[in-house]
Amino acid sequence: MEKLLTPRLLLPCKMQCLTIFERMTRLLDRNYTAKKRIFSLFLALAVALLGQSQTDIELKTVVIDAGHGGKDPGAIGYSGVKEKDVALDVSLKVGNMIKEKYPNVKVIYTRSTDVFIGLGDRGKIANKAGADLFISIHCNAVKDKSPKGTETFVLGLHKSDAALEVAKRENASMLMEEDYKTKYEDFDPNDPDAYIGLSLRQNVYLEQSLKLAKYVQDEFTYKLKRENRGVKQAGLMVLWTTTMPSVLVELGFLSNPEEEKYLDSKEGQQKLSQSIFNAFEKYKSELEGVNMSLEKTDRTTETEKPKNESVSKETTVADTVAKNAVYFRVQIATSSTELETKPSNFKGLENVLIEKDGKYYKYYIGNFYTFAETEEKKKLAVEKGYTTAFIVAYKNGERIPVSEALRSQ
Fold first, then answer.
1. Would you say 200 and 37 are in contact if contact means Cβ atoms under 8 Å apart?
2. Residue 398 half-sphere exposure toward CB, CA atoms < 13 A
3. DSSP classification of residue 76
4. Is residue 247 located within the same domain as residue 148?
5. Judgement on whether residues 165 and 310 belong to the same structural domain of the protein
6. In this structure, what is the dihedral angle of CA atoms 53, 277, 146, 257, given to the nearest 10 degrees?
């Protein structure tokens, strides 16, 4: 059931569900036996509210959280480099990259200066802003000087002692808050059992959080050649209160003299920031259905066009379907680039249709009067490499939920 609750489904009814979700999660801390039952009810309610077809969405707001700050220095490196400083420098760089490339995306920092922000308040900032994504940036440290590498966390039950230790260290910041006993009630960051209560908090967003975390780690590993410590789950309090896909990035170990030097350098911070931005861009593009490969497609000139290759023109409902008919399409890609709808531009797929929607061009296979035929075409598109292809439905030329189209048939 959780797999159904992707952001494509969540966002259209986000506010309806989040209020219920937030109230429920406040009750889950005290009664571990009731947790699964209550959460299952929430999932069922969410599915009922969100029982509609996938719709195009935009990632409009991202919150970037620079770990620690002010009186909380975080980890301190071998030669005195502070985690709070590195995290802030990288956070600001990532935010500036997003602003420059995507001026329509609102970037919010939990802190843009050296100030102390409580762990619970960081998530509240994101929730209040209605953010679509939360990225928390940190540095690692242990007593041993030899460990190195990057790792990215999502909220969940820790599966190793090392992940638990990271959670304990990051969550210890709450002890610096004046009213932490009231704000966090009986939560003890040093008690392993306390983390059980956190494991269900972000279950709805787990799939998307894991996806972004993987993209971040891939960038660090394959582009920067940093040692890959993997994507992990842990009971991190800063992710606990967020109601959107969220990750916590550990840039490296300040306790390792070599990595401390890299993390403190302008070159190192620039490269790490670029990697996080690249991961953000890939996540955003996939979420919105924008096919990045199309943006880079070389356009075939008139003289290079294969003979007898058909090209579909922009279509209207009147051109292709009977009035009042319900029909389906497979949306295979969205791009800011307008491409001729010839098979060679779409991995051999034929009968591709194009429609302009604002600044984007949307590409479909269709039109089909039966859902079964549409399913087959979707499978074909996925086999060709369009793994994010999805089915959409229309009536009288207007987009309608697939569930409604099926009922009308």
1. no
2. 5
3. B
4. yes
5. no
6. -160
Q: How many structural domains does the chain have? A: 2
1 lies in some domain: no
238 and 148, same domain (yes or no):
yes
Question: Is the omega angle on the peptide bond into residue 367 within 30 degrees of 0, that is, cis?
Answer: yes
**Domain end residue (candidates: 287, 305, 325):** 287
The model's pTM is 0.61
Query: Looking up tokens 């480099």, which residue turns up?
Result: 81
- Residue-number span of the structural domain to which 318 is assigned: 295-408
Average pLDDT (71-93) is: 95
Residue 220 dihedral angles phi and psi, to the nearest 5° = -60, -40
Q: Where do the DSSP E strands lie in 254-325? A: none
Task: Note whether 282 and 155 are same-domain residues.
Answer: yes
List pLDDT tens digits, range 173-215: 555 556 655 555 555 555 555 544 444 444 667 888 999 999 9
- What is the distance between the alpha carbons of residues 247 and 212, in angstroms, rounded to a whole number? 7
Residues 313-321, mean pLDDT to the nearest whole number: 43
| C-alpha to C-alpha distance for 273 and 354, rounded to whole angstroms | 36
**Residue 226 belongs to a domain with what CATH number?**
3.40.630.40
**In a shared domain, residues 278 and 350:** no
At 96-136, the pLDDT tens digits run 999 999 999 999 999 999 999 988 789 889 999 999 999 99
Q: Is residue 41 part of a domain?
A: no
Distance CA 282, CA 299 (A): 23
